[in-house]
Write a structure and sequence with these properties.
Layout: E1 3-8, H1 14-25, E2 29-31, H2 32-40, H3 44-51, H4 53-70, E3 76-78, H5 87-96, E4 97-103, H6 106-114, H7 127-143, E5 148-150, H8 156-167, E6 169-172, E7 178-182, H9 191-198, E8 206-210, H10 211-216, H11 218-224, E9 227-231, H12 240-252, E10 260-265, H13 267-279, E11 285-290, H14 293-299, E12 304-309, E13 312-319, E14 324-327, H15 337-354, H16 356-362, H17 366-371, H18 373-390, H19 405-414, H20 421-438, H21 444-456, H22 469-477, E15 487-494, E16 497-503
Parallel strand pairs: 1-3, 1-4, 2-3, 4-5, 7-14, 8-9, 8-10, 10-11, 11-14
Antiparallel strand pairs: 6-7, 12-13, 15-16
Length: 510
């Protein structure tokens, strides 16, 4: 909820990357050099030549103040390569936004600057000598910025993607326009004002949460200064009875077609609240404030809402994306360990689907994960966002997100929800990986890597003794992912790649 400042050496690509990042995040783009030139009426090289670098620094300060004061909407701002050498300037931007340093090697910068038609006063003359001296003089300064993106040997799309992960910020547009932001909520003095900044249409709002969250986060709820509806906690209450209670509560509290519902809780709360919002008065806005790891990295994203029937999970639902997803990893500090571990199953799944680096992070085990939750949430979110933006209505690629879920949902149902969702999905991934190896789609090494990683996170990999194979198969057949002749599975091929396979012989899966 602040400006994004791109900083780094001449030739790092701040303007090009900034324009593309701004477009991807649906934010305005500002080039601080152009603002300076609009103030003084001449180009930066001319200003440097006529009045010296200190004068340029003075105008950089004026330009930054102008940008911060006059930009009604937070923006992506490209800064000059030395704009933050002056402490006053650095303090100004760090107070009003986040700085991303775009870093590149000498070789990359030399090649780019050789081909650059723009005049660079500080690099005039022998480029090799000047560039080496320029980088040496600023090495310590550039190294002092904590958020860095290495741009060498990457295209613009890759750099923008990595920058959004580092920021924990995305803008989705394939199924309605909304932002996904990883940021501080619990620390906010005025949570409702922050929400209204991102969702200006927030009007006559009401919070839906469960009994556990209502007790644990009473102070946060007070900051919203709005009405609240509390429902029982747990998957067993994700049913029509609870949804009906939500509809009646909306009506009793005077919600109209311009109202906004705020879902504060895990996946169950998000799914039910989103569905209730999608159907109340033919659809009203809702905002997701996920409080569990599973909901942050999976359930809150993509617009799928719904509730369970006795015969299976999520058999009734609708696509109805939120107007904003705001995730604060501080909520995870109060999450019971079993719930945190459960959420890690979806993180592992995302790594297997398309992010080997995320999978490698999961290999570090539970203790490491607990100390690096923000990094885990940001990377895992990015995987799902990339998939759902390409296939919002699950016609093709989005079905890869079902890895582990066909078996997992069935096992979860047969357990009568004694197993947490993530625990069941972990079992499903292990079982489906073994089947993938059985049919020659993947190797035994991949199966072992998946099982080993799940075990390091204290997740189960075997169907519990006593579970009926027949009941599991029956549950799979009524799962929402079935088609007329077979059931489509997302099966691992390698870490970072899965393949969709139609399976008829379900008996061979287990």
């Amino acid at each position: 909820m602040a400006h994004i400042f791109l900083y780094g050496s001449a030739g790092a690509g701040k303007s090009t990357i900034g324009e593309n990042l701004a477009r991807s995040l649906n934010l305005p783009f500002v080039d601080s050099d152009r603002v300076i030139e609009s103030i003084v009426g001449i180009s930066i090289p001319e200003l440097t030549e006529k009045r010296g670098m200190e004068t340029v620094r003075d105008f950089e300060t004026k330009a930054m103040r102008k940008i911060i004061d006059e930009q009604a909407k937070k923006s992506v701002v490209a800064l000059g390569g030395g704009a933050l050498l002056r402490e006053e300037n650095r303090s100004l931007v760090e107070k009003n936004g986040r700085v991303i340093l775009l870093s590149a090697t000498y070789e990359t910068l030399f090649q780019r600057l050789q081909e650059d038609v723009n005049k660079r006063p500080l690099l005039a003359g022998d480029l090799k000598t000047k560039l080496a001296s320029y980088l040496e003089g600023r090495a310590e300064h550039y190294a002092s910025f904590p958020l860095k993106i290495q741009v060498d040997n990457k295209n613009i799309e890759q750099i923008v993607h990595e920058t959004k992960i580092a920021l924990g910020r995305h803008h989705l547009s394939s199924m309605g326009e909304y932002d996904v932001i990883v940021g501080d909520i619990l620390e906010s003095a005025n949570l409702l004002a922050n929400l209204q900044e991102q969702a200006p249409a927030l009007h006559n709002s009401i919070i839906v949460t469960d009994e556990n969250i209502a007790k644990l986060h009473a102070e946060t709820i007070k900051k919203l200064n709005t009405k609240i509806v509390v429902v029982p906690a747990g998957e067993e209450h994700k049913n029509l009875e609870t949804v009906n209670y939500l509809w009646k509560s909306f009506l009793e509290n005077g919600l109209d077609r311009k109202s906004t519902v705020i879902a504060l809780g895990g996946g169950v709360i998000g799914d039910m609240t989103g569905f209730a919002a999608s159907t109340y008065m033919r659809g009203i806005d809702w905002v997701a404030l996920p409080t569990t790891l599973l909901s942050m990295v999976d359930a809150s994203l993509g617009g799928k809402t719904g509730f369970d029937l006795p015969e299976g999970k999520n058999l009734i639902g609708a696509f109805h994306p939120p107007k904003l997803v705001l995730a604060d990893v501080n909520f995870l500090k109060t999450l019971p360990e079993r719930e945190l571990i459960s959420g890690m199953a979806e993180v592992v799944k995302h790594g297997i689907i398309s992010d080997p680096e995320l999978f490698d992070l999961c290999k570090n085990g539970l203790s490491w994960v607990k100390n690096n939750l923000e990094a885990i949430v940001k990377r895992a979110m990015a995987v799902k966002i990339k998939v759902i933006e390409q296939d919002p209505y699950e016609k093709n690629m989005r079905a890869t997100l079902n890895l582990g879920h066909t078996v997992g949902h069935a096992v979860e149902l047969v357990s009568k929800f004694d197993l947490r969702h993530g625990e069941a999905i972990a079992i499903g991934m292990a079982v489906e990986a073994k089947y993938s190896a059985q049919i020659g789609l993947t190797s035994q090494n991949i199966v072992e890597a998946i099982e080993s990683t799940l075990k390091k996170l204290n997740l189960p990999t075997e169907i519990p003794a006593g579970f009926s194979k027949e009941e599991i198969i029956k549950a799979m057949r009524v799962d929402k992912k079935k088609n007329a002749k077979s059931i489509r599975f997302a099966l691992p091929v390698e870490i970072g790649k899965v393949e969709l396979i139609d399976v008829d012989d379900l008996e061979n899966i287990l």
